[in-house]
Amino acid sequence: MPNHMWLRIESFQNRRVKEAIALRKSDERRNTGRIIIDGVREIERACEAGVLIEEVFYSPTLAPEKARQLVEMLAGRNVTILEVPKRLFEKIAYGEREEGIVAIARSPTFSLKELTLKSGPEAPLVLVVEGIEKPGNLGAMIRTADGAGVAAVVAADIRCDMYNPAAIRASLGTIFCLPVVAASSAEVLEFLQQHALKCVAARVDGAVAYFEEDLTGPTAVVLGSEAEGLSPIWRQGWVKSVRIPMLGRADSLNVSVAAAVLLYEARRQRMVSGVSAQV
Fold first, then answer.
1. Where does the RNA 2-O ribose methyltransferase substrate binding domain lie (predicted)?
2. 22-53, pLDDT tens digit by residue?
3. Is residue 2 scored above 60 in pLDDT?
4. Which domains does the chain have, with CATH numbers?
């Protein structure tokens, strides 16, 4: 293992340490084009997706065997390994999550123009989320989308940093496993029309219950923020509106829960109709 790729850092004043801590702020991530990834599973999934890992902070006293194996693999790929003591690692790591490894990577850049929906035995299913403010909700929806076999997640007029560490963590790293793009709501609407996707928007005043709508064809499921719901642009005549029946005092579910209900209803319908590519 090349010695120049494995460095030991002891000082809180080290430039690399300060830069890593600064990446917890969205402005720093935006200005540098870099992101910070916590955890073995998340880093592994980023690597599998071809995300460029620039350097890794590693604390041997905290790291389980899987983390040590990952560090060795990354070192073999000429990624700079920065070994740090526990006290220093705790300042770099996210919250109380200390798996002994944190990666610094280049932020993926994937635009709506680059998004292609592959043809196959199953019609594409796309998740569109508009105006999402909480990165944890975004990450949770991406995790659900990955589990439900969604072709892509499109963030319309997003109000949080897509690669916020909380979004990466909530997605369990699946944010790197499927196409996730951001665009304006107008651009997204145009994209859906161009690709002949049936647009099904969740609203508290939706015309029909979600399970009454056919979700087996090429479909985009659209959800808005919990605070404001969907913007008026989604009240186009060709956009279908559905509701999730609420039997208690609340008029809506958490947006990530609503996404799970709708996406797995689409999965159920496709399995029942025999068009699902998965069992």
1. 36-111
2. 999 999 999 999 999 999 999 999 999 999 99
3. no
4. 3-106 (3.30.1330.30), 112-273 (3.40.1280.10)
